[in-house]
Recover the amino acids of this structure.
């Protein structure tokens, strides 16, 4: 979903940021913003959502709020530890035998929170906006397999009617033509970037259309209050076409400091934490409210391959092999899975044997061969990260390991989330941390991150061979053949070229109050809150 975006990211992209506040209960029976405590889930949001514009959202913070507010043609279902794709705004779909033409039957009973009916044209409007380069969405490539979509994005054609999406004569069906076979295409449409939009509201209010007074949604909740940098209040949407939410309000408190959030949880001021402080991991694991959930997510460092010293493959390999992932896992509490390639376990394309393993002696030799036998001549390099206790702890361990194993110094630059995100697109850092939550349950969501000039590829690296393997894997329907193709791509990325250093795969930790039933825990970090119940 996004960058963590968790970069899901989302990401996406795990996104952890600052702005700690402490909000306590007011008069008896009420919480802030005059909400009835018996009807309100008090939820920790780790940072101010960068945007609630579904087309532009690229991080897990915004994505989780949008999960509650919006709806796509499809959504994910999590049962028995497996993820599947199910209907949402599309009541059903059919596909031709060649997996190139999908026909989605649209619901006729869905309405926006202002009563305006949902239509297929709103989907087309959203896709046109997504595929308009000046919009600036990092997810435009999601739809590049739609006929002529990439050509429209690149300006090779200007008539959007030539893009392979159209409505049936009765407007009840949306017909999508693809360039290549793509069996998992409906899964992409559960991602917020592909959601329908209200172009009338965007044109009327501009950037202010996401403010609570102007915002309209299609999901189980509506936006009641957005008190920037402090809180988001969601109210049940009684006109929602799907299952009616069991809890009336969700109060998302912006508490960036994990230790502050933990104290609020212990005092009964928060009901759910999606992030817990690592310094108290052992004691927290003993709490009856503790939950551990495997996740389709990976934490990694991106190397800026266009500037010294990471323009040298030997240096990239040396840094990679000098980092002991097992040591990092201990630093973060031992709950993660050390990673050596970008695709998490459980997906076709994951192979634990792929990737460069820890080997300090070999790393030192590579650095010598790169011309740095005299370590004092090694360039001053900077590691960028967004403000968060966990990111800082990992970076400091990497800093210590590179000093111990290679004899080099690195500087850590710690910045606020929005500033950091902008800087990843420049050469302010030599390398930076990122994390990605699968946007859809397929290895392509991870492998596709590093295609040449991809919206989420900040490494400045590109490979025509890699791009071709990604494209080939996209259209291959045979599971074993697809596994072989992705294996080749992963060896190229993680062993031969090394523009990225995987650190670990996630297992997410939560604290859920005993007064909360059916809190949504799933491998894709999706916040589907309809079934949440509160015990009075």
């Amino acid at each position: 979903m996004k960058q963590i975006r968790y970069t899901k990211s989302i990401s996406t992209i795990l996104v952890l940021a600052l702005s700690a506040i402490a909000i306590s209960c007011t008069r008896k029976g009420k919480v802030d913003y005059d909400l009835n405590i018996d009807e309100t889930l008090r939820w920790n949001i780790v940072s101010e959502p960068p945007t609630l514009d579904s087309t532009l959202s690229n991080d897990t913070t915004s994505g989780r709020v949008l999960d509650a507010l919006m709806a796509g043609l499809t959504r994910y279902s999590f049962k028995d530890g497996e993820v599947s794709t199910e209907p949402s705004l599309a009541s059903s779909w059919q596909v031709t035998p060649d997996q190139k033409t999908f026909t989605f039957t649209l619901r006729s009973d869905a309405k926006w929170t202002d009563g305006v009916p949902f239509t297929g044209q709103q989907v087309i409007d959203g896709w046109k906006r997504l595929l308009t380069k000046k919009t600036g969405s990092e997810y435009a490539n999601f739809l590049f397999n739609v006929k002529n979509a990439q050509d429209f994005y690149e300006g090779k054609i200007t008539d959007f009617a030539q893009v392979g999406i159209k409505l049936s004569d009765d407007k009840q069906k949306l017909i999508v033509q693809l360039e290549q076979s793509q069996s998992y295409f409906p899964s992409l449409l559960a991602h917020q970037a592909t959601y329908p939009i209200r172009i009338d509201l965007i044109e009327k209010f501009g950037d202010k259309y996401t403010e609570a007074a102007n915002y309209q949604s299609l999901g189980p909740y509506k936006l009641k209050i957005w008190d920037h940098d402090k809180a988001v209040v969601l109210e049940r949407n009684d006109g929602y076409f799907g299952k009616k939410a069991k809890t009336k309000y969700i109060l998302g408190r912006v508490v960036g400091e994990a230790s502050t959030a933990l104290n609020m949880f212990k005092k009964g001021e928060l009901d759910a934490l999606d992030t817990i402080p690592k310094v108290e991991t052992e004691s927290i694991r003993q709490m009856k409210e503790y939950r551990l959930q495997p996740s389709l997510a990976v934490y990694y460092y991106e190397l800026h391959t266009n500037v010294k010293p990471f323009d040298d493959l030997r240096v990239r390999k040396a840094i990679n092999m000098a980092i002991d992932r097992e040591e990092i896992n201990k630093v973060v509490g031992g709950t993660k899975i050390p990673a050596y390639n970008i695709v998490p376990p459980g997906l076709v394309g994951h192979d634990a044997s792929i990737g460069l393993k820890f080997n300090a002696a070999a790393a030192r030799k590579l650095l010598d061969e790169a011309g740095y036998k005299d370590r004092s001549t090694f360039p001053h390099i900077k590691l960028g990260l967004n403000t968060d206790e966990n990111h800082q702890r990992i970076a400091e361990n990497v800093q210590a390991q590179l000093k111990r194993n290679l004899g080099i110094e690195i500087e850590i630059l710690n910045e606020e989330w929005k500033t950091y995100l902008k800087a990843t697109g420049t050469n302010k850092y030599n390398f930076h941390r990122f994390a990605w939550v699968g946007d859809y349950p397929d290895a392509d969501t991870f492998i596709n991150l590093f295609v040449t000039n991809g919206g989420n590829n900040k490494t400045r690296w590109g490979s025509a061979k890699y791009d071709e393997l990604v494209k080939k894997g996209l259209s291959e329907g045979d599971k074993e053949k697809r596994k072989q193709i992705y294996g080749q791509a992963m060896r190229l990325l993680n062993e031969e070229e090394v523009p990225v250093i995987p650190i670990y795969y996630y297992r997410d930790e939560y604290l859920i109050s005993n007064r909360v039933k059916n809190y949504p825990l799933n491998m894709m970090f999706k916040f589907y809150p309809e079934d949440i119940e509160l015990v009075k």
